[in-house]
Amino acid sequence: MANLPFFKDISPDAVAALLASGTRIEAAPGELLIRRGDPSTFALLMVEGIADVLIDTPYEQVELAACESPTIIGEIGAFTGVERTAHVKARTAVTAVKLSSDVLARAAQAHPSLLAAVMHQFGQRFATFNRAFGFYANALNALERRAFDLRLLDDLRNPLPELVNFSASFRRLAEELMVREAERRELANAAAIQRAMLPPPLDGAVLGGRADIYAEMRPAREVGGDFFDYFTLADGRLVVTIGDVAGKGIPAALFMSATQTVLRTVLRHERDLSDAMADANALLCANNSESLFVTVFCGVLDLDTGVLDYCSCGHGDALVLRATREIEQPPVSGIALAMMEDQPFSARRIQLQRGDRLMLFTDGLTDAANPEDQRFGDGRLKEALRRAGHLRVAPFVTSVLDGIEAFAGEAAQFDDMTALAVSFHGAPDQP
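The structure corresponding to this sequence follows.
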């Protein structure tokens, strides 16, 4: 004890006399030495052991610091008379000398350096706490602005003794937030790449007034597993595809991009749609370490005749809204892509008439649920198509998606919502 700063100007005999005027206590691990809110009537001179300083919060008890022997705890309260502001609990077996406020007051009168040392330590603590909380306030503001400098974390490696545990918790929080921020940037980049892979609007001259097309995707997350595509072949036919990968996040997005690339390649080189789907399936099965699969509706439309050849590979989410407002659902013609190798696929044919509209979508539309957990469902979707059928193709799609979001209300969007519509007008000289 004579080596502590409090007693450096006091003779060993005087220190021994001070200790002799106190009460020796032994505390077992977990025993409370000081209770928050109690009157401050004593200080503890810890001779052996470790004690933890704890505070209560509305949520749980938080450990602020650890006190290792030899040290003095509770001396500020003993001199000032303020009630205890924290708990002190023995972490290990503790041996201490309990000195009453009266004993400390008499010792301070006899040895003014003791009181001066206590006040000096109090001032140092106050100053260091001000600096520390200034640092944390600055760090929190930086986190809020997403301008946090990782070098700030290095300053937390050697924190104040009184803030060891708080600093460790803050550091973990900051590191986790920075990791999440990095992940958010990665997802934002992935989302930008995914959007860039979607086709731009087709020039009206390409379609020659024979059709209008519009597609829209509203992902549930930054990146999703839905995709759509459209392009014209060398012979002038229009290809439209929509797909839904069985999965979420980055793996589904990567498989989606691979599927889109594969379909574009095979459809440009294989005229027969059935063979093109078989080739695409073989390519996707060969590079599928994640064992993902994708449902796809792929249609090839003759813009002059309205003949639509299609393969519905496990994707039943397609409707034909006739000019008469009747709705037909093309049957599924095969299994999803990448499920089984050497799988044959068959194409089917639909005849579109002037004024008919093909609506392709993913199950995020029908599976959308409201706060009462009611699904939007097939019936509501068909009614929405009929109500919006008089609109041009772009507002038609947007109106349907907006209606589904209005139905869902405050409920979280569970799945991507993607829709593609083609209105067939026929050749200009067609009767």
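The CA atoms of residues 50 and 68 lie 5 Å apart.
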